[in-house]
Design brief:
The chain is α+β, with helices and mostly antiparallel strands. It is 30% helix and 15% strand.
Amino acid sequence: MTEDIFILDSHSGIFVWVGQLVDSKRKLQALTIGEKFLEHDFLLEKLSSKTPIYIVMEGSEPPFFTRFFTWDSAKSLMQGNSFQRKLAIVKHGGAPLLDNTCITWRQVQCT
């Protein structure tokens, strides 16, 4: 997932989660992506255009974001892209490799 952008609609706010490996051009589009999500009303919720949009960077997820999930902070510290992370878990008997330093998600496709 670290190379992707996802949207979480919590009904009281929109969270745009940006993976660490997303290229800089797409990272700059994060707010626009959240605004477009509100504008197009994909879930037919008629959310206000004043609904707050939060940009959440991978590895810096605040508690008001992680409360929507069964959050495993150890997994958020793993190195590599999503495939490499899963492979590391399998190779090491389910124990994630740590870097020493689920509400429905909608994956965003940027062109």
